[in-house]
Amino acid sequence: MDRDAYYMGLALEEARASAAMGEVPIGCVIVDEDEIIGRGHNQSESMDSALAHAEIMAIDEASKKKGRRIGSTLYVTVEPCPMCMGAILNARVDRLVIGAENPRFGAAGSVVNLAAFRAFNHSVDVRRGVLEEECGEMMRTFFKSLRP
Amino acid sequence: MDRDAYYMGLALEEARASAAMGEVPIGCVIVDEDEIIGRGHNQSESMDSALAHAEIMAIDEASKKKGRRIGSTLYVTVEPCPMCMGAILNARVDRLVIGAENPRFGAAGSVVNLAAFRAFNHSVDVRRGVLEEECGEMMRTFFKSLRP
């Protein structure tokens, strides 16, 4: 199996943990030479914090091992928002692998493309659409469940 | 004295705490109806984390009091980077007051203007140039001190 699909599958497991808590189901894993150095799932509601996105949780964990420049590949089930995309640039993530698109808040091309601003001292390679159907379906199921 | 200048002075005190630690001197305070609900100073080096910017530290503290939508006015001595500007939008900060410009990484207009993307569900009122000279001078002094 495609290595990226394998790790995106683990990010989907993280997203399932969010769904189980009634949170928007987004998950993230960070991989450095086949070692997982960070995991995170969205916990904005339960932590009651706008900072508690999957990518921030995962980068926080990875920074404890690798310091503030983590490099590595970050897998996330949904295209990052501006905050998370900014954190990805600040942490000097080498490569970003995205599952589903985020047409409302996506900052890796959907609404704005921060990855393309070379002014920000670092650029990140982006691959999109890995397990896109599964990642998107998890979001659709969640939002459908909110409707009366 | 101008109320904004008063609170920017407190943000400058936070920036001084960063400078004393050998960190890039950026400070932040968050004010909700004349009550300070968050303070932060850049600690990227000492915490060895790309997330440890002044605004993130202050929003984290404010969220513990007000939850994930903090509203309020956020004072920061230097224009926010994309990560912090994204966090400001996610946390639904009502008003952003900036000291010095950040021509390299500024995401409130200097390199990109995330505040202007109405697509991001929330817009924030921005005032610039409050104690600009003092805020900028602190940065210049710091970077000068790094040169041999």
TrEMBL record, chains A, B:
InterPro entries: APOBEC/CMP_deaminase_Zn-bd, CMP_dCMP_dom, Cytidine_deaminase-like, tRNA_aden_deaminase. The keyword Protein biosynthesis does not apply. Zn(2+) binds at H53, C81, C84. Its cofactor is Zn(2+). The active site is at E55 (proton donor). Keywords: Hydrolase, Metal-binding, tRNA processing, Zinc. This is tRNA-specific adenosine deaminase. It comes from Aedoeadaptatus nemausensis. The gene is tadA.
